[in-house]
Design brief:
Blueprint: E1 4-9, H1 16-22, E2 25-27, E3 30-33, E4 36-39, H2 46-55, E5 60-62, H3 66-79, E6 84-89, H4 97-105, E7 111-115, H5 120-136, H6 142-155, E8 156-161, H7 166-170, H8 176-185, E9 187-194, E10 197-205, H9 208-222, E11 231-234, H10 240-252, E12 259-262, H11 265-271, E13 276-281
Parallel strand pairs: 1-2, 1-6, 6-7, 11-12
Antiparallel strand pairs: 3-4, 3-5, 8-9, 8-13, 9-10, 11-13
């Protein structure tokens, strides 16, 4: 039976529990604050916000380097010489990580690199679904796994609801005019993934609580989500009351006990504090 090891980037925000459960190898992405660059996951996301408030400058994020990837691949093969690596990459159009993996894999055998066209909790959803698929199919081939990932990524949906557009404006993703207009009209635009890109989507008007409930309603009524994959969470600063509201709203639409995730430093630097997210994979 072929041994498969799944690798991915830290920008997946995959939890330590899931890493241990499925033997996932996580390759660090990076965050630069001032003159110092840190591995994603080596510090609290709150530090990002403290840095911005103190300096007025947004931290810069960067993907994995070829050396990061080569180190991870070499470690896997040193422990499992005959294994196949299935690398499920952070959206290739948003960072250099995918290309870094391709460079690191040159001249090596048994490494299969797939663009997830997703990030954060969406990438975790694809990684976990793939791990379960491998566990359930003892004779599965690399080609079948690649096909499964490519099919799953097209059924994976993510919606982000920033509490504030301050960080998106600071990062140049929202203009000053759009920021002022949204503030005056109490608009909360959502961010979704389309073919790997983060794009602005439907705008909700009113309090954050009202927008959160309406965003969840639209998400679960627009897609036939597999309840086992439905995940909610957000960035540091998402209040307990908003978490409870999110879960209660899902319960209203028949989704019980959703999985939870906490956004890491890469996505948090763009979404800002208190952002809400909902993720799920459609049923076949």
């Amino acid at each position: 039976m072929t041994k498969y090891i799944i690798t991915t980037e830290s920008g997946s925000d995959i939890s330590p529990h899931l890493v241990e459960r499925y033997g996932i190898v996580v390759i660090p992405m990076h965050v630069t604050m001032g003159s110092k660059t840190y591995d994603d996951g080596d510090f609290d996301a709150k530090d990002l916000y403290d840095f911005y408030h103190e300096t007025g400058k947004l931290p810069k994020t960067s993907g994995t380097t070829p050396q990061d990837c080569a180190t991870a691949f070499e470690q896997v093969f040193s422990e499992h010489p005959n294994a196949h690596i299935i690398h499920i990459a952070y959206s290739a159009v948003t960072t250099v990580s995918y290309n870094s993996c391709l460079i690191a894999a040159r001249g090596l055998e048994n490494i299969h690199i797939i663009d997830s066209k997703s990030l954060s909790g969406g990438l975790t959803a694809i990684v976990v679904a793939t791990a379960k698929f491998i566990e359930s199919n003892s004779t599965v081939t690399p080609a079948e796994i690649i096909s499964f990932v490519e099919n799953t990524r097209e059924k994976t949906h993510c919606l982000f609801l920033p509490k504030s557009l301050v960080y998106l404006r600071a990062g140049g993703r929202v203009s000053n005019a759009a920021f002022l207009g949204a503030s005056l009209l109490r608009l909360h635009p959502t961010i979704i993934l389309e073919d790997g890109y983060l794009v602005a989507s439907k705008k909700y008007r009113g309090s954050f609580e009202r927008c959160l409930k309406n965003a969840i309603k639209d998400f679960v009524t627009s897609f036939n989500i597999d309840s086992e994959t439905l995940t909610i969470g957000g960035t540091v600063g998402l209040s307990d009351s908003h978490k409870l509201l999110g879960e209660a709203t899902l319960n209203k639409y028949g989704y019980q006990n959703p999985q939870w995730f906490t956004a890491g430093t890469v996505i948090s630097s763009h979404g800002g504090p208190g952002a809400f997210a909902i993720i799920g994979i459609e049923k076949d």
